[in-house]
Amino acid sequence: MIIDIHGHYTTAPAQLGAWRDLQIAFTNGQGEAPDPSTLQISDDDIRETIESNQLKLMNERGTDVTVFSPRASFMAHHIGDLAVSQTWARICNDLVARVSQLFPDRFIMGAMLPQSPGEDPSTSVAELIRAVEELGAVEINLNPDPSGGLWTAPALTDRSWYPIYEKLVEYEIPAMIHVSTSCKPVFHTTGDHYLGADTTAFMQLLKGDLFRDFPDLKFVIPHGGGAVPYHWGRFRGLAMALGKPELEDHLMNNVFFDTCVYHQPGIDLLTDVIPTENILFASEMIGAVRDIDPRTGHYFDDTKRYVEATPNLTDAERSAVFESNARHVYPRLDRALSARGL
Length: 342
Description:
Layout: E1 3-8, H1 14-27, H2 43-51, H3 54-61, E2 65-69, H4 72-75, H5 82-102, E3 107-109, H6 125-133, E4 140-142, H7 162-171, E5 175-177, H8 189-207, H9 210-213, E6 219-221, H10 232-241, H11 247-250, E7 255-258, H12 264-273, E8 279-280, E9 292-293, E10 298-299, H13 303-309, H14 315-329, H15 331-339
Parallel strand pairs: 1-2, 2-3, 4-5, 5-6, 6-7, 7-8
Antiparallel strand pairs: 9-10
């Protein structure tokens, strides 16, 4: 199988964005808080947006299953207060759950959390429980910077995050470390903000000893790990300077990178530097980079082509990147696929 562990509902029906605009206006003191029941999205609306977009590309590229979560840039945890985030997370999670219900053999849901700047991370636990137990989520997106670029949250190794980690371990689901929209114009949301956050998250984990307390906790750092593979020697050296073990022992039983890297040399470097068992296939299709590369004639985000072409993987290793690594890191995904005969 080809399992893409990183997809977002970037093509959600326009009604979703229109409802969110009303909610944002309310946070700015304009009008009343919109009623969630006024958001009307039909099954046909969902089918149309999926069949003509993500599903079409999955079929063309040969991807079997996508772990599908709310649009990352729409999470925007810095907008409004906790109540606003709770309402918005519930709406978005319910919507992606409907995608997985309408296309059960092709999409399995991941969830967002109702994080809010300055709020204790434990306030997200209730929605995490609902997403897993009621909606069937097999992963969550965890924003290490709910402030949207101000980085006011404690490091991921801080004990305030532990209630979330305890539930992740209990449910056997990983967290994808994924920021959302930048509130600072100097940072491009899907460019330097995303990739800088990926790198920052890895460094936070390197400086701490989180996995001593949570040996079974799993994190996926997306977008190929930001700058991490390219600067692997730097991070190894910093680990030594900080008195930490080698990275393979310190972090790599618990930290995994995806293949959302949009050119062949990038995938070649990733697969050369990072242990194969720590690489998970992903494309984040119809995401940050949606165009066709004029040098190749193929979409930048058609990452399957790069994984197939790299000389750094044997056939067995390629199969692990495409399927078995995901089944190992995502036990609930594995069980869900097995229950479908996949």
